[in-house]
């Protein structure tokens, strides 16, 4: 069963996270998510445990518990969904496109037809 672990301390290592969850049973994998721009942890990660009963015990035992002055959030991980509205994280919003904008219309009768540069 895959678990989400959130509100984690930013200096937490994967080994420390595995140790926390190992108190409730076997842990098959641990991954802390890293920000690709800053190369620093984002404060959440995922833990996989093969036994559903052990995973549920970890949820009950760790969710809301303070660890390094932060209250951990632990629950079952939801499947990842494709959300096209967040594509590119809004980085290119308002930029690009094809021409337009402040173009002069030289054929309008209220303008003289001289080209201005």
Which tags fit this structure?
117 residues; alpha+beta; Alpha-Beta Plaits; 4-stranded antiparallel beta sheet; two-stranded antiparallel ribbon; 2 helices; 17% helix; 23% strand; elongated
Detailed description of the structure:
The protein is an alpha+beta fold and 117 residues long. It has a domain of 74 residues: RRM (RNA recognition motif) domain (Alpha-Beta Plaits), CATH 3.30.70.330. Helices cover 17% and strands 23% of the residues. It contains 2 helices and 6 strands, in the order E-H-E-E-H-E-E-E. The strands form 2 sheets. The protein has a 4-stranded antiparallel sheet, with helices on one face. A two-stranded antiparallel ribbon has the order 4-5. A hairpin with a 6-residue loop joins strand 2 and strand 3. The longest helix has 11 residues. The termini are far apart. The model has no long low-confidence stretch (mean pLDDT 82).
